[in-house]
């Protein structure tokens, strides 16, 4: 599982010209689900995501979590995080999870986030989405379950 976490002052996602999710201060999280991912892996990734201290405190140190700043989450599924570019110039996506399994796990992830964060918005799984954001810093962190498990 991979999360690309971007600290934002605002972010939104549109599908077919309609805004389906929008937040102010918080994290825009691009969620990639691999073939072997499970709810147990998702739980560990979510715990790390929620506890990440990457917002500035009063001294300008990255010391505050999402809860500390009363931040929100915008979760967007993105299977292309599993692009393999080792051979040739056309990426392979065979490491990405199957659509049915990935959608179920994506929904689980969003639902679990909603039990811990007051505002959780999401994109639409499998849709052609237009994502807009104002990245603060810019500050972007990549969480990969292969590196934190």
Search tags:
149 residues; alpha/beta; six-stranded mixed β-sheet; two-stranded antiparallel sheet; 3 helices; 38% strand
Indicate the radius of gyration in whole angstroms: 15 Å
Taking the sheet with the most strands, its summary is: 6 strands, mixed
- How far apart lie the N and C ends? 11 Å
Overall geometry: globular
With helices defined by DSSP (H or I, 4 residues minimum), what is the helix count?
A: 3
Order of helices and strands: EEEHEEEHEEH
Uncertain regions: pLDDT < 50 for 5+ in a row? none
Number of strand elements:
8
Mean pLDDT: 97
Output the structural class.
alpha/beta
Strand content: 35-45%
Write the layout of secondary structure elements.
Blueprint lengths: L1 E14 L2 E6 L2 E7 L6 H13 L3 E2 L5 E3 L7 E6 L21 H16 L5 E3 L6 E16 H4 L1
Parallel strand pairs: 3-6, 6-7
Antiparallel strand pairs: 1-2, 1-3, 1-8, 4-5
Structure in words:
The protein has three helices and eight strands, in the order E-E-E-H-E-E-E-H-E-E-H. It is α/β, with parallel strands linked by helices. Strands 1, 2, 3, 6, 7 and 8 form a six-stranded mixed β-sheet that branches. The N and C termini lie close together (11 Å). The model has no long low-confidence stretch (mean pLDDT 97).
């Amino acid at each position: 599982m991979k999360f690309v976490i971007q600290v934002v002052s605002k972010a939104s996602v549109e599908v077919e010209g309609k805004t389906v999710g929008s937040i102010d201060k918080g994290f825009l999280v691009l969620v990639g689900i691999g073939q072997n991912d499970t709810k147990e892996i998702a739980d560990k990734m979510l715990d790390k995501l929620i506890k990440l201290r990457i917002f500035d405190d009063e001294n300008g140190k990255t010391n505050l979590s999402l809860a500390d700043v009363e931040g929100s989450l915008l979760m967007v599924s993105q299977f292309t995080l599993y692009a393999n570019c080792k051979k040739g110039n056309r990426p392979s996506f065979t490491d990405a999870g199957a659509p049915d399994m990935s959608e179920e796990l994506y929904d689980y992830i969003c639902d679990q986030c909603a039990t811990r964060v007051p505002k959780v918005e999401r994109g639409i799984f499998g849709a052609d989405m237009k994502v807009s954001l104002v990245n603060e810093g810019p500050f972007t962190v990549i969480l990969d379950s292969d590196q934190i498990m």
